[in-house]
Amino acid sequence: MELKARLRTHYKYFLNNFQTRWSDNDQYGHVNNAIYYHYYDTIINQYLTTRCSLIPTRSPHIGLCVHSSSDYFRPIEFPATLDLALAVTKLGKSSVTYEIGVFETGKEDVCAVGSFVHVFVESAGRRPVAIEGEIRTGLQQLVVERESDEDKASKL
Amino acid sequence: MELKARLRTHYKYFLNNFQTRWSDNDQYGHVNNAIYYHYYDTIINQYLTTRCSLIPTRSPHIGLCVHSSSDYFRPIEFPATLDLALAVTKLGKSSVTYEIGVFETGKEDVCAVGSFVHVFVESAGRRPVAIEGEIRTGLQQLVVERESDEDKASKL
Amino acid sequence: MELKARLRTHYKYFLNNFQTRWSDNDQYGHVNNAIYYHYYDTIINQYLTTRCSLIPTRSPHIGLCVHSSSDYFRPIEFPATLDLALAVTKLGKSSVTYEIGVFETGKEDVCAVGSFVHVFVESAGRRPVAIEGEIRTGLQQLVVERESDEDKASKL
Amino acid sequence: MELKARLRTHYKYFLNNFQTRWSDNDQYGHVNNAIYYHYYDTIINQYLTTRCSLIPTRSPHIGLCVHSSSDYFRPIEFPATLDLALAVTKLGKSSVTYEIGVFETGKEDVCAVGSFVHVFVESAGRRPVAIEGEIRTGLQQLVVERESDEDKASKL
């Protein structure tokens, strides 16, 4: 399935009625491409802190971003409110790959789809650690099946 | 009255459940001081666009910020949600002074109080113009009486 | 002296050729008012970290912003480069008031003047502490005399 | 060649001594992942406006971002200054793919490598247009050969 066909039903967790900001719009009058990554960071960390007991300033393990990407399908303009949608597409031993969908509140077509990879590390030494406990339990609840690239290739 | 005693009842318009963002927190683990001005800009422009028919990219008149200030009373930390509160403390011929209160959702003590002055200008030539029509009508609905500095001085 | 007459000679420390960013411009095609506070934060903390041995993540004392303000005189547009200029207008026991001037590289007229108050606190308990050692020595080097409000009033 | 082995010699245009900002650091004390995209936007648009005569508010054609990605190899901390490096890895009829390298001033190891795709459109109707004139000439000067994914696969 193409990313631009994503629906809300392809995701597991939502941050609804998320208010865009005046300064999100750039001089072309729409939300600047870099701002979407602030949205991705927000829904991921809001989930980790409110649902997985992560306390960024005190937790022994934290998630560091090692890769991210975004595809943009439809422009958004402040003062739109958004429904941010989150899924986990891969949960490894110490890394997790998230997919984020950006929808305008009240509209169906997805505006952008992002991918974001966290590696969990010791907050002190920053060496990779296994994802365990409440964080693993929390992330497992967001896991979805996505057609892999190989699957897509095999269907060509 | 001291600014730090501001209550929600001192304001006329609200943007509730405003989601802070991961990147709002600076390395001291709380919302960075500069970020509050993004909040102020957001509630003011959200009011102007949704209640006063301002269309920033097409309106003949736009508001430019010529002065702003903020006092900070209590730190805020992502992932808190906020109730932003707006009032107009002075409505002149071509300029308007806003006051913004920042409250955490579910808490009573004000976290910060901002002041923000817009001068309305022609979007093309950027010369000051009189505030008229829907914008004046909209702003009048937010006007509140605030003790002036002279009043405060006279009571000393 | 009016703020809009400030010259580079009214300041003591400079961060020259400071590059504006694409996302600094808002949809009116000029640097957004809130962005100036990011500039103020940057020159102040760049001075504290490079000249006063402040290490934000480890220093026992840190500066918290309790008040800030800005006056805007001339718009700036990305991709301009700026000369940020810093002075200390008041150095108290535990607080310091900075003034920041924003100039475009190669131009003389000041674009904006900001004021910013830091209270130094224990990084752990966040209680005010006396400004001492390298931080006081560093800040003293930036102190300038500014006409006080009382002086200005007495000359009316 | 792996992205993390990129050197300054792999790029064609530089924005040196680029000052990071206080608010770029997140609560983990390093530059937030989303901020890198602001850097990418800045070097690309600084090149387009200063070398290719693009005037964002008035040019008939503008570049819209349709895809971006970033890999992160080494953390950066404010107040570091950066050398941003730019190349064009694909120049199509109406789209261009940039690669951006982020280096700390005075250090050799690349900190992050970004990819960014602009589609040029009419600024009015936002329909794709051919990249022509000074913009094409300017972009051609940044073109570099990069091993394609197929090449890499064939060498395995």
UniProtKB/TrEMBL annotation, chains A, B, C, D:
Gene Ontology molecular function, alphabetical: fatty acyl-CoA hydrolase activity
Sequence ranges assigned to domain Thioesterase in this UniProt record: 28-108
Gene3D superfamilies per UniProt: Hotdog Thioesterase
Record-linked InterPro entries: 4-hydroxybenzoyl-CoA_TE, HotDog_dom_sf, Thioestr_dom
Keyword annotations of the record: Hydrolase
Keyword Cell division: no
One of the Pfam families matching this protein, by short name: 4HBT
Family: Belongs to the 4-hydroxybenzoyl-CoA thioesterase family.
Name the UniProt record assigns to this protein: Thioesterase domain-containing protein
Upper lineage: Eukaryota, Fungi, Dikarya, Ascomycota, Pezizomycotina
